Amino acid sequence: MTPVVAVVAMGEMGAGLASLMVGSGARVRTCLAGRSAGSFERADRAGVEIVDSDAELLREADFFLSVVPPAAAKATAERFAPILSELDIKPIYVDCNAISPATAREVGDIVAASGAGFVDACLLGNAPAPGGPHPRMFLSGGAAQKVSLLADYGLTTQCLDGEAGQASALKCTYAALGKGLIAIAAWSVLGARRHTVDEVLAQEVAQYQPALATILSRMLPEMAPKAYRWVAEMQEIGAFLGEIPGGQPGFEAISGLFDAVAGDGGAETVAEAAELVASIEAFLATGPLIAAAGRR
Predict the structure, then answer these.
(1) Burial degree of 142 (CB within 10 A; 0-12, 13-18, 19+)
(2) 123 is in which domain, residue-wise?
(3) DSSP string of 134-203?
């Protein structure tokens, strides 16, 4: 039987997953009440059915995928739990958000109170794009095997041993490594620029660490357009690392850096963000660094 999958929301990742499933024969629906024109455009490109209400979204669905910013994960569960409670046949609630294991368990408790099944999911990789690799979906929790059947409908799934929270632990550790490296690189570059040793730094990296030059040239440009999405995620990682020395304050600091790069606090912070981004772009445009990155 063709599965019916409800997806909230239609950001790049949510719409990308929906497109994969639609292309493999699944029925995918979403509710876009109050959403932006961009969400409508992405849903239309993905071939997603648009319904008028949350109740219609969940009715007769087999799976519900929550793909929202980390800060909205609990609120999304609270939004849909009352509707789930009223359904005789309930979809499995799959939380695909970049949250800590503790937050995943809180979301799971909210969902469990409605009587619906819950799966903690971890998405590794970028949103699907034509010709590009698909993100990997790791699943944990009692209903993980059932959700893994979406591998027959375009998704790349893998079940993890253990209870809900394992997938979120994997996400936190993977994101801590990748985005932590981006933050350390940005701090290094900004410090070098402030003390006018950035050209020498670029030459040294290019000559003696060409592999690092390649990594910097690939990863640092991702920071500016995505920083606003990473602020809450870094806070979740900080909470996850709370019992490890330096873990929580370290990732709270990284969250602060991404918040500054996002520049969401008014004209002054926008100007500061532009200056930070311009400094990083200038470093990446240094001749030796371009040459080193091009050689790899």
Answers:
(1) middle
(2) 4-164
(3) PPEEEEESTTHHHHGGGGGGT-EEEE-SSSTTHHHHHHHHHHHHHHHHHHHHHHHHHHHHHTT-HHHHHH
- Based on the fold, state whether residues 197 and 276 are members of the same structural domain: yes
Maximum Cα interatomic distance, the chain, rounded to a whole number of Å: 67
Determine contact, residues 43/15, Cβ cutoff 8 Å. yes
Tokens 């029925």 label which residue? 27
* Residue range 231-245, pLDDT digits in tens: 999 999 999 999 999
Asked if residue 84 and residue 51 are part of one domain, the reply reads yes
SS (HEC) of 134-148: CCEEEEECCCHHHHH
Task: Tell which of 139, 164, 189 closes a domain.
Answer: 164
Number of neighbouring beta carbons within 10 Å of residue 282: 14
Q: Which residues contact 75 (CB under 8 A, 6 or more apart)?
A: none
For residues 141 and 148, give the distance between their C-alpha atoms in angstroms, rounded to a whole number: 11
Phi-psi group of 65: left, alpha or beta (phi > 0 → left; psi -120 to 50 → alpha; rest → beta): beta
Sign of the C-alpha dihedral computed for residues 146, 95, 240 and 169 taken in this order: positive
Helix (H, G, I), strand (E, B) or coil at 6: strand
> pLDDT per residue over 124-181, tens digit each?
999 998 889 999 999 999 999 999 999 999 999 999 999 999 999 999 999 999 999 9
Q: Which two tokens stand for residue 173?
A: 């550790």
Whole-model pTM?
Answer: 0.94
Same domain (yes/no): 105, 213 = no
